[in-house]
Amino acid sequence: MRKIFALIFAFALLWTRGTGQAGTHPVATEDSIASISAGNDTLARALLWQIEGDSISTSFLFGTIHIIPGDEFFLPDGTEEAFEQANRIVFEIDMNEMMDIGAQIALLSKAMMTGGQRLRDLISEDDYALVKAHFDELGLPLVLLERIKPMFLSVFASGDMSMDDLTSGSTKSYEMEFFELAKAQDKEVGGLETMAFQISVFDSIPYDVQADMLVESIREEDDESTQFQEMIDMYKSQNIEALYRMLTSGEDDLGGYEDILVNDRNKNWIGIMSPLMKMESVFFAVGAGHLGGYDGVIKLLRREGYEVTPVLAGTDTFVRPKKRF
Fold first, then answer.
1. Which one, out of 79, 119, 167, 325, has a CA that is 20 to 30 A from the CA of 256?
2. How many angstroms separate the CA atoms of 245 and 167, rounded?
3. Which of 125, 126, 123 is nearest to 150 (CA)?
4. Which of 66-80, 119-133, 251-265 has the lowest mean pLDDT?
5. What is the DSSP string of 112-123?
6. d(Cα 173, Cα 70) in Å, to the nearest integer?
């Protein structure tokens, strides 16, 4: 279940799991272009896409994974040049807002359940004992946390990563890397959503359903670690269609809330992306799980009349810059 948060919620990127082993850094090849031929609607294996249209400045779409082990972090060919070409960098949420302590404090109350509800009111005694034992092992007293919305607890339930992991470089965030580069290049930064909106998405799922998801994630902790590594491997192979399927397939993944958590958000983004691209060249960086699928950002943009093509290794579109992150 934690793969949901790694793919969807930029708000949780400082807290989600960051495990895995070192691996190679594959990039899309020219052969991948065959997968977007007229006879095959499957998207190419590519994280970086170019957006063109008569009424817009050429812009770019990049699929991120919010947390990745530092030794597995990579950038596909052409990413840095696309970044440098863009005038504005736009994330799921404005990273300036995320880094603002005042904004974070103001949102703390929104993490709490309404009506004085507690976790122990939503699950059985046995399940509560299971959750309590798990948090005790992490050194987090559940009695101080049980009024927090269960989906937030699902994020905290993973004890594999701390803030030190991000500052030490053992874990990296694509959003943070891009944000720091944007500041270094003095680029404007924006967001497709606000932090308040992302938190409100949690409220679309009943508390008891959230609580069941929390219990399930703790019961299947070992499987979740394996699934997260599978997700990392899919990401490194730039298989955005597989990432989308991993995110949305099966009743145990998004629990029937795919539209609320993924598809509806994608559709909302298109209405924000279009005006921005008409003003200037934009580099959009959103979770890779939002790119694939019929209602993914790529196909939604195409249905709006834009030409959205993969930036593939070996093409003449970009020459790999010497400068690295």
1. 119
2. 32
3. 123
4. 251-265
5. BPSTT--GGGTS
6. 9
Q: Which of 42, 75, 43, 82 is nearest to 60 (CA)?
A: 82
The span from the CA of 93 to the CA of 64, in Å, is: 13
In angstroms, the CA 225 to CA 21 distance is 12
The structure tokens listed for 120 are 């122990």
Q: If 0-12 CB within 10 Å is exposed, 13-18 middle and 19+ buried, where does residue 323 land?
A: exposed
Residue with tokens 């530092």: 70
> Look-up: residue for tokens 């992991």?
165
Task: Please tell me the pTM assigned to this model.
Answer: 0.79
Q: How far apart are CA 43 and CA 34, in angstroms?
A: 9
Strands 282-287 and 59-64, by their bridges, are parallel
| Lookup result for tokens 């960086």 | 285
Length in residues, the chain: 325
Tell me the three state secondary structure of residue 49.
Answer: strand
Q: Could you read off the pLDDT of 59-113 as tens digits, one per residue? A: 999 999 988 899 999 999 999 999 999 999 999 988 887 777 776 676 777 788 9
Helix (H) / strand (E) element for 62: namely: strand 59-64
Q: How far apart are CA 177 and CA 249, in angstroms?
A: 30
Distance CA 193, CA 318 (A): 30
